[in-house]
User: Fold this.
Amino acid sequence: MEEITKRKCLVTGATGVLGVPLVQVLLNRGHTVRVLARQPISGDQFGGPVEVVEGDLRDPEALELAVAGVDWIFHLAAKLHINDPGEEARKEYISVNVEGTQNLLAAAATRSVQKFVFFSTINVYGPTVSGDRLNEASSLVPAGIYAETKVSGERLVLAAKNSGQQDIGIVLRLAAVYGSRMKGNYLRLAQAISKGKFLFVGKGLNSRTLVHQSDAAAAAVLAAECAKGGSIYNVTDGSVYTLRKIADAVGDALGKKVSRIHLPIKPIRVGIAAVETLGRGLGIRPPVSRGLLDKFLEDIAVDGSRIQQELGFRPRFDLKQGWNEAVDSMIRK
Assistant:
């Protein structure tokens, strides 16, 4: 990243998986940072001076305060993917991920905001066919309410203009983000391998695309500094891996041998279905579901070359370096 004019930035979702690394990159680049937070927080966690505005995406007064005088907005705040969401969760996805984004854009539309960076997901493409690698021009076939609301958010952002009628929206479709602050399925994978309780269902040859949290943060700042409004970029580490290769990288970082034994898919699916049925009858949510199994088995292979070619993005972390960092942080905790 070359030296450029310093900007005043708003970050929503700043305390999440990617928020802290993003704020740190902005501060290191000399930009001024304001965060929108639902609860009182200390700016100390960011390693530098940060202004805090309390409120959420459904609070118009807080949004007006948050966007005042801001040059760039980084919109991370969202209800993240969960397996098998119920109807109430679906309503919250729409309220936060779609209506919340619309509210923030409405506040930005009356200001001279220059860039609005929206964090989407490669899940908007849906699962891929084995051997395919999708790019930014590929059709969107979102699977599940989380991806559906991200598609809706993208459309709002790409149509957004500021008070000077300039296009401000930039969409970043992130690969699965991992690192010291990760949550969700990859954290579960690392914990299972750490405890020696991980076995493959199927052969583990399905394709996956990842990006380390530090690289995702750097890509976001680069996009704000260099990309034009209306741009869409996949953000990945530049490679596609099999699930087995990822598991082996986690095992190597942990000093654990990942078992070569794999369980057959069909009997496991039947067994999980039976447990789900029993759980519903007892009013218990089982720890494993068919939805989780489907996520484990799916292919999602995405091309991240556009942001490298157009903006000069260069990921710092390969699979080995990234998982060594993530595991080191798990051990320290």
User: Anything to note?
Assistant: The chain has a mean pLDDT of 91.
